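ok, trying the design again with the full structure, not the truncated one.
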């Protein structure tokens, strides 16, 4: 079936398992008008995010170009490219060799990843750093974003990116749990990218975006909520985007920066799905999911206390790493660890009929 956006090929449920499925396809990539495209061409940079067919149950796919929901998988990826092309990728480098046609053949691998993203360019320069916990950081800067800058300015930007990523990873590891991969690639994906986009072990950025540190805090936070703790991103957007916004504001401020409601209040309930929220130019999709989500998590922490709040977050990590959580899983975990009844607060933000069925901590 094809609905104008998704081509779906049903697989019979009674096929024997395990099985091997071979899919031969050709991908034709052009530019994407909004700049947010995970798969697109942008000034000589080829972005490849959610670029391959996925085996899944039937669910909505984002027309806002954010990652859709998916389960984790182990990947083995082989790419043949001319020798002058640089590749940024999720996962780890395994080997390279000369292909039959003279191209360079790269082999990569990734474990427990919900996607495997690649970014290719002839203009990349690569710099590296290592976190205190041993995570290799890689920053891929393309020539377009450094044109006209002094060496000092280029060095300052690189230092700023690494310092922010270092701080984000250190704090998130302390508050929630270990960073789940060996590497994190921070990749300049072209001048039309309005901000950033998350993939497991790799984030897209426009390095000219300001405030750049906030962008990196946000996208790095998605490595914990979306990449590690999976969510139904289009149904429960308040979980992954609300949490990322919460950490974008909280990590650099000591968790004191709380978003205020917009004039007139929020247009949507926090549990609104992608089918309810429209992009009508008022940015209510951002206020209602991202900022309202961040404010909700602040209020949960204030109500239950910061110590049990972080205990609940670590419980979510321990219980659902590389799995997927539902809204009920998240709210029940916070309620379980709260010394006070959170259900009245939940009732202010959500329309879930089961909120009052959650058992308070006794």
């Amino acid at each position: 079936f094809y609905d104008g956006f998704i081509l779906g090929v049903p697989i019979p449920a009674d096929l024997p398992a395990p099985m091997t499925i071979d899919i031969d396809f050709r991908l034709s990539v052009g530019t994407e008008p909004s700049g947010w495209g995970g798969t697109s061409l942008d000034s000589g940079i080829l972005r490849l995010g959610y670029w391959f067919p996925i085996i899944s149950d039937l669910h909505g796919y984002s027309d806002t170009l954010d990652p859709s929901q998916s389960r984790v998988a182990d990947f083995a990826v082989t790419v043949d490219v001319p020798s002058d092309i640089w590749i940024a990728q999720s996962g780890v480098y395994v080997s390279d060799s000369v292909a039959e046609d003279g191209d360079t053949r790269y082999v990569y691998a990734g474990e427990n990843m919900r996607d495997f993203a690649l970014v290719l360019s002839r203009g990349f320069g690569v710099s590296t750093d290592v976190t205190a916990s041993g995570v290799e950081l890689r920053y891929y800067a393309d020539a377009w974003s450094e044109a006209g800058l002094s060496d000092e300015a280029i060095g300052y930007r690189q230092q700023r990116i690494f310092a922010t990523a270092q701080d984000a990873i250190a704090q998130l590891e302390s508050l929630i749990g270990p960073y789940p991969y060996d590497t994190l690639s921070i990749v300049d994906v072209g001048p039309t990218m309005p901000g950033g986009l998350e993939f497991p072990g790799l984030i897209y950025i426009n390095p000219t975006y300001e405030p750049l540190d906030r962008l990196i805090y946000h996208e790095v936070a998605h490595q914990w909520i979306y990449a590690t703790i999976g969510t139904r991103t289009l149904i429960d957007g308040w979980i992954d985007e609300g949490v990322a916004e919460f950490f974008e504001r909280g990590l650099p401020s000591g968790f004191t920066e709380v978003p205020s409601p917009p004039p007139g209040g929020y247009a949507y309930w926090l549990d609104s799905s992608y089918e309810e929220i429209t992009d009508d130019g008022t940015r209510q999709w951002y206020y209602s999911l991202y900022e309202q989500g961040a404010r909700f998590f602040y209020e949960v922490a204030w109500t239950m206390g910061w110590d049990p709040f972080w205990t609940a977050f670590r419980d979510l990590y321990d219980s659902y790493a590389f799995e997927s959580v539902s809204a009920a899983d998240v709210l029940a975990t916070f309620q379980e660890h709260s010394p006070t009844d959170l259900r009245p607060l939940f009732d202010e933000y959500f329309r879930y009929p089961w909120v009052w069925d959650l058992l308070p901590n006794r």
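Keeping the full-length input from now on. The radius of gyration is 21 Å.
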